[in-house]
């Protein structure tokens, strides 16, 4: 399972459990919380009524006072109050008063006057001097029919002479409880979803950053030329820098070791030839042989110089991870410049050079490297084109790329060699002498093409060989 999915799964589990626990706890607390708040209000109301009713109860004329009419008028009131979107159109309090024995003296509902309520907890506990309250179902089979009763003592000095109870049906609180629960569910679910989206975004970002690092490490391990990923500052950015530094150090060590081996191997042959010729020159020999051995020394010394220079150029290109400049380079003038530089050699071999280049074609990259790459291709073509032969340079624009093709009329490349021509130090004998080159030219061209994001291909065509170089167009 990908790391990002695992991180999100853990985050999802944590957020889900936390959301479920918090929502469940808060949902369970809404109903008792609302009822506790209502009970606190009933306590205040009952104590206020106890003070109002004290004098009529002491005088014993509660039933003959104006209070029964007041309670009836209270029951007929229509508040039409809008509370949290709900309209309260009637009052819900029931108020009854008992004497010191628990007998009902006054009842706002008019149902219980004269009854003995001394066994109800609100009256019983209050007459004993305790806090009296109860919750009783009007319908024993319906839990939503419960009514909350809160009582307060009516005192004459320190003596309890009666009890006033205020009742409120719990069902009247249900709309507010349900509304709070619904809002909590929607808002809690929204927060959970938002948290999961944030977690998904964080997991995606982290997975993407780690994916970039992984792709970079794999590409670098495979020997591809890649740039380190651009990551934000922080631990991931520091990790990318550390990986790049480690890669550079390891590549540098491997590169030096590989080049020491290859350079040592390639230097053996010309050095042995120079040494053998030098030893022979110490002895007496005809002038013709003397000149031949001197010529051998000069040729091998020239070969050593070419080998050193091309190795340096190739090393510089292989070690680079990017271009030092990117400029538009007109192709036709560049090719003309390279042909003019080889004009003496072209004339001596009586070669015919054709150019099929549109004046508007432009390459996009580093001029020095592209010039060196095209010069190597032209040099190769000159080596393998017989006297009086043909060299043709043409180019065409293919979208974002320019395809440069160099054709030379000559013998076809053997099939066994086609796949090895860009290998370092691999070279075919030149026509008319069998001399080999350093074997670094085409390898250099391929490195330059890859550095520009392009490709190099070599193939046999009718009448000769064609080399194609795909490079970015300006």
Automatic annotation (TrEMBL):
Top EC class for this record: transferase
Occurrences of domain Histidine kinase (ranges): 262-474
E.C. designation(s): 2.7.13.3
CDD domains: HisKA (cd00082), PDC1_HK_sensor (cd18773)
Pfam family of the protein (one): HATPase_c
Gene3D superfamilies, sorted: 1.10.287.130, 6.10.340.10, Histidine kinase-like ATPase, C-terminal domain, PAS domain
Residues that span the membrane, as ranges: 6-27, 184-206
GO MF annotation terms: protein histidine kinase activity
UniProt xrefs under PANTHER family: HISTIDINE KINASE (PTHR45436:SF10), SENSOR HISTIDINE KINASE YKOH (PTHR45436)
Name of this protein: histidine kinase
Organism per entry: Microbulbifer variabilis
């Amino acid at each position: 399972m990908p790391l990002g999915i695992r991180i999100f799964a853990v985050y999802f589990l944590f957020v889900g459990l936390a959301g479920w626990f918090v929502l469940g706890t808060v949902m369970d607390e809404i109903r008792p919380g609302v009822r506790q708040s209502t009970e606190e209000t009933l306590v205040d109301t009952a104590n206020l009524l106890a003070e109002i009713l004290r004098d009529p109860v002491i005088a014993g004329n509660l039933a003959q006072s104006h209070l029964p009419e007041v309670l009836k008028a209270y029951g007929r009131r229509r508040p039409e109050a809008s509370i949290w979107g709900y309209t309260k159109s009637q009052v819900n309090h029931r108020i009854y008063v008992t004497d010191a024995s628990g007998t009902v003296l006054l009842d706002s509902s008019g149902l219980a006057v004269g009854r003995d309520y001394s066994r109800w907890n609100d009256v019983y506990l209050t007459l004993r001097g305790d806090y009296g309250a109860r919750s009783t179902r009007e319908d024993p089979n319906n839990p939503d029919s419960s009514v909350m009763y809160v009582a307060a003592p009516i005192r004459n000095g320190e003596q309890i002479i009666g009890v006033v109870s205020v009742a409120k049906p719990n069902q009247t609180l249900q709309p507010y409880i349900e509304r709070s629960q619904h809002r909590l569910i929607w808002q809690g679910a929204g927060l959970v979803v938002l948290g999961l989206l944030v977690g998904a975004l964080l997991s995606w970002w982290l997975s993407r950053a780690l994916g970039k690092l992984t792709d970079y490490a794999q590409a670098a391990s495979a020997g591809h030329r890649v740039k380190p990923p651009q990551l934000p500052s922080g631990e991931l950015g520091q990790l990318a820098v550390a990986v790049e530094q480690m890669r550079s150090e390891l590549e540098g060590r491997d590169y030096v070791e590989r080049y020491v081996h290859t350079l040592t191997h390639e230097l053996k042959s010309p050095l042995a030839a120079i040494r053998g010729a030098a030893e022979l020159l110490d002895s007496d020999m005809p002038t013709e042989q003397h000149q031949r051995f001197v010529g051998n020394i000069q040729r091998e010394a020239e070969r050593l110089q070419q080998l050193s220079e091309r190795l340096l150029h190739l090393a510089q290109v292989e070690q680079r991870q990017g271009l030092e400049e990117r400029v538009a380079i007109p192709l036709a003038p560049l090719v003309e410049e390279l042909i003019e530089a080889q004009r003496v050699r072209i004339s001596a071999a009586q070669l015919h050079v054709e150019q099929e280049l549109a004046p508007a074609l432009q390459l996009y990259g580093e001029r020095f490297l592209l010039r060196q790459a095209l010069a190597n291709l032209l040099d190769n073509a000159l080596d393998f084109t017989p006297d009086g032969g043909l060299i043709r340079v043409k180019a065409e624009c293919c979208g974002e790329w320019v395809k440069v093709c160099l054709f030379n009329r000559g013998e076809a490349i053997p099939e066994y060699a086609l796949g090895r021509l860009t290998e370092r130090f691999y070279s075919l004998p030149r026509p008319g002498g069998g001399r080999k080159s350093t074997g670094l030219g085409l390898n250099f061209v391929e490195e330059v093409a890859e550095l520009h994001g392009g490709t190099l291909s070599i193939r046999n065509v009718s009448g000769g060989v064609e080399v194609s170089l795909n490079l970015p167009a300006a």
